[in-house]
Each structure stands twice: as C-alpha cells, then as structure tokens.
Amino acid sequence: MIKIDEKSAHILQIMSVDGRISNLALAERVGLSPSACLRRVQDLEKAGVISGYRAVLNPAAMGIGFIAYMGVGLSEHSKTAQEVFERGVAAAPEVTECHNITGSIEYLLRVECTDLPSYKFFHTDVLGQLPHVQSITTYVVIGSPKESRA
Question: pLDDT digit string (tens) for 28-40?
Fold first, then answer.
C-alpha cells in the first residue's frame, strides 16, 4: 500500500477533475519539478491508486434522454441467484452501473435509455424477465447538480 501524502493527494484531486492535464501543468499546480511529479503519478499508477483513465461522456449528446436508478430485490438470496442476475444485467447495454448493496434490496442499477418507451421495454422485457427478480423500484433522475464519477 502506498502512502498518500499531501502532494500526492493534491495530484489525485487535480487529476480526478482533469485526467488529461499535461505533466508540466500538473507539476506547476502542485509545486513539483516535472520529473518528480511524473514519478509520483507513475508510483500512484503502479500502486493501483490510479486504476485508469476514461472519457466522460455527455448522455444527451449520445441520444440518452432518460436516466434512472433502479432498486432490485431478488426472490432468492443465494450465490446462484446473484450470479444469474449479474450475468443478465452485464448483457444489458442500458445498465451502466450495477452495485450489490446492503439493506432491503440486493442491487442498485444506473440505467440510461433513449426515452421513456425504451425504458419501459427494458423494465418489462429485459429486467422483468430475469430469473429471481422479485421487486423493481425506479428512481427517475430529473437533474444532477453534483456528479463527479467519470
């Protein structure tokens, strides 16, 4: 496990907002030489603290007009039921996130669809047809004043 000091934490904070920042600009912002800054970033990558880089996509520009979070409860609390469910949602392109959670339900999904009719199809003909699905509760996103996941 790598020790994350104040400089490394500052690097991570900046890179979490702008993963494409140049090493020179990053070094200037954190007050390090470019070589020292690059070494720290490489050490953070090797340690797995920085696990990758990705593009942040604009759902509206991609034709996504309906975003919802769905709570899913299973009828059976077994490893087999979970594996079957997880394989089913892994095959569904509408599901952009799947979290196995604690509480009164087993899963929380983030679902992105073109529009309400495409969501209804997903809800009824995809998710509703998976074995062991007992309950589905939908929370429609009407705005995202803070969204920091990439």
Answer: 999 999 999 999 9
Sign of CA pseudo-dihedral 103, 105, 108, 112: negative
70: buried, middle or exposed (CB in 10 Å: 19+, 13-18, 0-12)? buried
Q: pLDDT (tens digit, 9 = 90+) per residue, 69-109? A: 999 999 999 999 999 999 999 999 999 999 999 999 999 99
Residues 70 and 135 in one domain: yes
d(CA 120, CA 113) in angstroms, rounded, equals: 9
State the residue for tokens 């496990």.
Answer: 1
As a whole number of angstroms, the distance between CA 44 and CA 25 comes to 18
Tell me: do 34 and 96 sit in the same domain.
no
Same domain, 135 and 85: yes
pTM of the entire predicted model: 0.83
Nearest-angstrom CA–CA distance, 108 and 136: 10
The total domain count for the chain is 2
| CATH, residue 13 | 1.10.10.10
